[in-house]
Model the fold of this input.
Amino acid sequence: MTEGVMTYEYDRDAWVVEINGYQYTLFCGESFELIVGQRNIPSRLELGENWYIVMEGNVPFDLRISNVYHIYI
Done:
């Protein structure tokens, strides 16, 4: 797995991950590990009224489009 930085792109209305200087668009249903402190949490990107992820145990977590998230993908 490769570590990347996940940000929201307003122009694309999509989340993108930057890895080694390249940006990749993420789509609904894509899986990755969200880095929270020292823990990597398996997650899946989804879109309802807003973007959110579903973490292990089917726990939903709303994403803030102004935040930057670190992930392994």
Observations:
- The CA atoms of residues 36 and 70 lie 8 Å apart.
- The chain has no helices and eight strands.
